[in-house]
């Protein structure tokens, strides 16, 4: 049991590191991308069909690539960013690239749910586009955005397990090295249970945060 804990804790730490850092960069990149997708659409506050079409195409194209293929495809870019293609830090690059377009679509959906009457009221009051985005759209959509962050975090957790298969470290790497190659079924089972527990914790925290924001 002690030997297993010694194996599990470092792998769990690597997974949490990958998920946390990847989620931070995903939000930083995906939130403005999702906002731009919404506000540049026709009949919105900054309509621009060219920008909207280009960004929408890029998002759809990236989302269509399976994660394993994406990891291999961007190996030169990953090496250029972090100097290596092996390890948890290197895995963060494809994780962010895979999750950002997904989160951008989540942001887009959340912002489109905002009552247009609220937006029109801010326009009538003379608010600038930036003020409408930061003081109307995003605050009004915050409960949905929090749920979107929750869903995206769970997706990144799943991606991180796949990254472990190709040298990304974390729980996925532990499951492959000991559960698959060494036929230690108990390691594989324990890894799956830990991943399930992490998903449950993330989902619970996200749901609670969204409920709190909904009451405000």
TrEMBL record:
GO terms for biological process: D-methionine transmembrane transport. Residues 12-206 form the ABC transmembrane type-1 domain. It holds the Pfam family BPD_transp_1. It is found in: Cell membrane. PROSITE patterns: ABC_TM1. The keyword Oxidoreductase does not apply. It is a multi-pass membrane protein. One of its GO terms (cellular component) is plasma membrane. Keywords: Cell membrane, Membrane, Transmembrane, Transmembrane helix, Transport. Gene3D superfamilies: MetI-like (1.10.3720.10). InterPro entries: AA_ABC_Transporter_Permease, MetI-like, MetI-like_sf. SUPFAM superfamilies: MetI-like. The chain crosses the membrane at residues 16-38, 50-74, 80-104, 145-167, 187-206. Belongs to the binding-protein-dependent transport system permease family. CysTW subfamily. NCBIfam families: PRK10782.1 (NF008049). This is D-methionine transport system permease protein MetI. It comes from Thermotalea metallivorans. The lineage of its organism: Bacteria, Bacillati, Bacillota, Clostridia, Peptostreptococcales.
